Amino acid sequence: MRLVMLGAPGSGKGTQAERLSKKYGIPQISTGELFRSLRKGEQLPGMSLPQEVIDEISSLINNGCFVSDDITIQVIENRIALPDCENGFILDGFPRNIPQGEALDALLKKHSIHLDAVLEIDVPDDAIVDRLSGRRYCPACGRTYHLDAKMPTEEERATCPEGCRNLIQRDDDKPEVVKKRLVTYHDVTEHLKPYYKEQGKLITVVGRKKLEKTIRDVDRALESIEKNRIEA
Ligand SMILES: [Zn+2]
Predict the structure, then answer these.
(1) For the chain, which terminus, N or C, has the lower number of CB atoms within 10 Å?
(2) pLDDT per position in the chain (232 positions), as tens?
(3) Phi and psi at residue 74, in whole multiples of 5°?
């Protein structure tokens, strides 16, 4: 199964990507995570990125700058060549604009790889702002919680150096910042929807308040993709 996840920040696409990665036994490839891992300037296990590319990413990330599409696609190419991608992968956070989408298509074509689907998790903006503004983070253990949905359990408190006592809100989760990110999503990334729709690859699932419902809808949508794959 080769998938691209699409969805606004806070839509829950990362949660679904993580779950699908386990379900199908294929890696979840997040460019953000790859870049963060490369910030120390060291090669990642199994990968063979040129040192100058690693150095450039490291310096961009450490200075809070964006990594260019050119370099990003090189990292993706390197990553999907690893043996764990043989049965598929889930791209999370890439592509985020049309040029990246086109670059990805060219890359897949070059390696004769077929993309099965682009799975969009669609959540209304006001629901996203609500959801993210309740998110809290424990700086001591790095866990993320939610005021309404997921407060620390006894077990989590017991394994945290500070007992998860001082939960803070990330700047990224503050309503004014979330709204700005949503504008960027609608102005830039959302153009990928018609792009993939035209290719017949877009599947949209409405992200619901109840996670189980979203999970059920995602699984149903992907089961039909898998069925088609086997028949083809
Ligand atoms: Zn904690």
Answers:
(1) C
(2) 999 999 998 898 988 999 999 999 999 999 988 998 998 898 998 899 999 999 999 999 888 888 999 999 999 999 999 999 999 999 999 999 999 999 999 999 999 999 999 999 999 999 999 888 899 999 999 898 999 878 999 999 999 999 999 999 988 889 999 999 999 999 999 999 999 999 999 999 999 878 899 999 999 999 988 887 767 6
(3) -65, -40
Residue 126 lies in a domain: no
Residue tagged active-site, from 96, 174, 197, 201: 96
Domain that residue 155 falls in: 138-166
- Number of structural domains the chain divides into: 1
Neighbours of ion ligand 1 (CB under 5 A): 138, 140-141, 160, 164
Residue 179 placed within a domain = no
Which 3 state secondary structure label does DSSP give 19?
helix
71/160 Cα distance (integer angstroms): 37
**Residue 143 is assigned to a structural domain of this protein:** yes
